[in-house]
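Reopening this ticket.

The earlier resolution said the output was attached, but the attachment link was broken on my side. Pasting everything inline this time so it's all in one place.
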Amino acid sequence: MTILVTGAAGFIGYHVCKALLQAEHFVIGLDDFNDYYDPDLKKARLRELEKIDQVMGFTQEFPMIFEDVSLLDKQYIQKGIFKAYEPDIVIHLAAQAGVRYSLENSQAYLDSNLQGFLNILDCCREVPPQHLIFASSSSVYGLNQSMPFRTSDHTDHPVSLYAASKKANEMMAHTYAHLFGIPCTGLRFFTVYGPWGRPDMAYYKFTKMILDDDTIDVYNKGDLMRDFTYVDDIVDGIQRLISHAPVPNPTFDTQDPRPDRSSAAYRLFNIGNNTPVKLMTFIETLEDLLGKKAKKNFLPMQPGDVYATYADIKPLQKLCGFEPKTDLRTGLERFVEWYRGYYRL
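Inline output:
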């Protein structure tokens, strides 16, 4: 199939593109190399994708086209990508990430997560794909403390602008599914980690700071829990979903409109490891793998943070057989191996 991946040079986007190319799909990648973190890391990911044709032994040209373009350039995306290639599947992963960064630079979230996603939806309206899969986040659960998080839970109390923008994405996608029949699936990612990750993520920062003998900040004095999800498990879930485009739910009750159902071709899923880990256990595992103890600065809870995340993944398991396979130690071991290799340590 012809598959468009936005955020293709990003962390999850890179791994998704790699898997799709290895499955011999034709991939159109889109990214704008913004400077939220080091653009050289994104360029290095792209170079890795360019090697895949040699590994796979493709007889055709490298089966990926990459476009360096902003989500805000709607005219080019519409004409130069959607109308030019007519993608069968759209996997929308591009976004302004980061909870804490949203406290400092709100405009970036308005531009990328709201206007950018609206542009993608409008392009899907003009050139309808078979399936639009888009990235949401566990952060939408906000003040909800009912564990595990279920897609049937209401998500009306976000605690960061990032979370609010992802909640808005879900509502925008539902509207387009309802009005224009675009089959949309939203995936609420739970703390994704792994090789080629984002330098702003805790596990990446902790690794650098421990090796540099710097002090790491540990929020809420270490009393936090996260459903850490290895990136290959995320990719497996996305691949499984491609052929499962949603259809309207005939049992939808307008008198009791549950959040996890819709009369439109629209669905939401949690995609996580389904195994929350204490932050201090996470740090101790990383220390063991690095062979070095961390210097810790214990701090109170940060604005925009939540105490715990825990994904109920039963609906995704039932639909497509999704099953996370990577435990935290194995995943962190792979990350540390990549980190040492990439930075030649």
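Reporter confirms the inline version is readable. The chain has one domain: 2-190+231-272+311-325. The radius of gyration is 20 Å.
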